[in-house]
Amino acid sequence: PAEDPPPLSPRRNVAKPAKLRESITPGTVLILLSGRFRGKRVVFLKQLESGLLLVTGPYKINGVPLRRINQAFVIATSTKVDVSGADVKKFNDAYFARPKTKATKSADGFFAAESQKQELSADRIADQKAVDAKILDAVKKVEFMKPYLNSRFSLSKGQQPHAMVF
Amino acid sequence: MNFGKFIEIGRIITVNYGPSRGKIAVIVDIIDKNRCLIDGPSGRQMINLKRVTPSKFKFSINRKSSTNKIHQLFLENKIEKKWFNSRWGKKVLRVKKKENFSDFENFKFMIGKKYKSNIFRCHI
Are A47 and A53 a contacting pair, CB within 8 Å? Predict the structure, then answer.
């Protein structure tokens, strides 16, 4: 070639954390759309630095612990719970990071029959209880909020999600 | 058989189909057997009588009345208030309210239905 191709410029765009939807504020009841807890209605606490949403069931009501959720897999309802009493400052992405397991390179390791069951640390349980205590107080004040959070969302025939009011 | 709700000038009708669906309008003029001229929130338009249901309300207007005049008479006769106080009008409001229920309100409605049917069952 007569001219050398121009050198590739270094990638300068860094992916920013997802912008939080206006409909999602602390205390909003969200409907989870995918994952283990799909259909469950949970309470939104805050957005973490990575852009993921921190939610809690509360655990006593519907079995959803403090968990990270992607905003894309969530429907925000217009219902709000008062979460001002709950202290969520200590929770960040590092808190939820999975502990790194040593990669086994042998053939046996690949077809590992046993997987180590992760023990739930007492800290996690204590944190869950601390956060949920204030939220449960607020939930008790609203009639039917507890059975509402306990119920699962599902679509029946004729319902069109794009036309529904949440 | 006694008919009471006639298609006549000044009759209040509900529009059942089209962009003005669910709204009420006044019959201003009758074009032919199938069509009439109405005046309402979406302005003055020709509409097929198949898309329309007459109500029991009417007020006297002249055939050549302008939109402004009709609107003034509409307010004077308090048609909107009468309409939303009637059984039909109340039903329209109720249906609209149910359509706009939030997810939580729908849940409470479901609980209410179960409660009500339970009471009926206990009484049979």
Answer: yes
